[in-house]
């Protein structure tokens, strides 16, 4: 029987449980044994009880759950070759040569590195007399498939990452709550949202809640001038009769010289306008709660396709990342997706913001 391991890695996101459930059940359907690797890459490195077979019943009711019930971690040991050696040893001794990783770009980069090093890792384990010749032969190729689990929606080559729409929903709920009190007191609110270097959550939340202004990393305003522009916009909205002011600030927001635009700096501008202003940093509530229907659907369809991809892969197939483009579940070369994602950060660092926007691979930022 083919043995597949599934893990969640990096920051958790809503829908990861649905993805694990789909992998486990699709795996069983296709007559494979599916192992959960608990605590992200730590489970592979430490092995033992952290690498356990899951049955059909074990994932019952997981479709809607937030977080990840198999745990996650940002594992430092796996970044070292010694950690990857232990991981390879634990996989081979458990008879596993396929790994489905649900995580962000860092986790998927680690997975691809693991695959490229695999033959040399096995060779070293053989030299250390930890593995026998027949094991090296039998498990000589490693199959890696990536599922993108992240609230940030920052991965290239896919329109949506698992968790992004749930997080967006959470943010919108919170801004709706804030709207009520803001309007009652005729106050201004600065709402800081997550997303790391990606403005998707901020932009979409601003559009969906009708914010006065939005600050995101990919469309930075001119240094200093943004303060006057913000005042002009908010004043105009007030003059039209709006009783509240809401500004959404992505945690990675910057100006055109790459200076951070912090929620405090935005608050200062609103205070200068004479507005009674409060700041709300939403924090980890954005990663909490159940998965919205879209994420349940996305995680389930992608989890099933990840298992199919494992079964269809040949040693020459580049590691795929399962994405969604124009409503179709697609397989993209994982390395390319990770490289493109990293090149957005490079474009921003080089102040080439138009390039950053086009590299986001979506049309909504135009
Ligand atoms: O990548 C997901 C994310 O929630 C980012 O939006 C945020 O910057 C970061 O993780 C927070 O990380 P941590 O949970 O380790 O504080």
Q: What does it look like?
A:
With 366 residues, this protein is of the alpha/beta class. 44% of the residues lie in helices and 16% in strands. It contains 12 helices and 11 strands. The protein has helices at 16-29, 41-46, 81-93, 105-127, 133-138, 164-185, 200-209, 225-239, 263-272, 293-312, 334-349, 353-359, and strands spanning 2-8, 32-37, 51-53, 98-103, 143-148, 188-193, 213-215, 245-250, 277-281, 320-325, 328-333. Strands 3-2-1-4-5-10-11 form a 7-stranded mixed β-sheet, sandwiched between helices. It has a 4-stranded parallel β-sheet with strand order 7-8-6-9, with helices on both faces. Strand 7 (213-215), helix 8 and strand 8 (245-250) form a beta-alpha-beta unit. Helix 3 (81-93) packs across helix 4 (105-127) and helix 11 (334-349) packs antiparallel against helix 12 (353-359). The protein is elongated and about 75 Å long. The termini are far apart. The model is unreliable at 362-366 (pLDDT under 50). Bound molecules: 6-O-phosphono-beta-D-fructofuranose. 6-O-phosphono-beta-D-fructofuranose binds at residues 11, 104, 150-152, 194-196, 251, 287.
């Amino acid at each position: 029987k083919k043995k597949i391991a599934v893990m969640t890695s990096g920051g958790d996101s809503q829908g990861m449980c649905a993805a694990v459930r789909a992998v486990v059940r699709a795996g069983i359907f296709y007559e494979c044994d599916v192992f959960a690797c608990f605590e992200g890459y730590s489970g592979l490195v430490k092995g033992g009880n952290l690498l356990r077979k899951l049955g059909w019943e074990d994932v019952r009711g997981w479709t809607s759950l937030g977080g990840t019930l198999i745990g996650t971690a940002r594992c430092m040991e796996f970044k070292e070759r010694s950690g990857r050696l232990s991981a390879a040893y634990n996989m081979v001794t458990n008879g596993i040569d396929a790994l489905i990783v649900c995580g962000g770009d860092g986790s998927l980069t680690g997975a691809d590195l693991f695959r490229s090093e695999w033959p040399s890792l096995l060779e070293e384990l053989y030299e250390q007399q930890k593995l026998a010749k027949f094991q090296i032969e039998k498990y000589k190729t490693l199959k890696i498939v990536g599922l993108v689990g992240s609230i940030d929606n920052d991965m290239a080559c896919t329109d949506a990452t698992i968790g992004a729409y749930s997080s967006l929903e959470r943010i919108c709920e919170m801004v709706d709550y804030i709207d009520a009190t803001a309007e009652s007191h005729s106050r201004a609110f600065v709402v800081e949202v997550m997303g790391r270097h990606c403005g998707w959550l901020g932009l979409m939340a601003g559009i969906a809640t009708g914010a006065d202004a939005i600050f995101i990393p990919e469309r930075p305003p001119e240094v200093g001038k943004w303060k006057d522009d913000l005042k002009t916009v908010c004043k105009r909205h007030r003059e039209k009769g709006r009783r509240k002011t809401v500004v959404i600030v992505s945690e990675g927001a910057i100006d055109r010289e790459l200076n951070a635009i912090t929620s405090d700096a935005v608050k200062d501008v609103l205070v200068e306008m004479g507005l009674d202003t409060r700041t709300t940093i939403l924090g980890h509530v954005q990663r909490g709660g159940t998965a919205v229907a879209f994420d349940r659907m996305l995680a389930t369809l992608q989890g099933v396709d990840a298992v199919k991809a494992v079964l269809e892969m040949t040693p020459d197939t580049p590691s795929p990342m399962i994405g969604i483009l124009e409503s179709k579940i697609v397989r993209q070369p994982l390395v390319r997706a990770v490289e493109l994602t990293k090149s957005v950060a490079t474009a921003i660092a080089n102040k080439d913001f138009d390039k950053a926007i086009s590299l986001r691979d979506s049309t909504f930022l135009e």
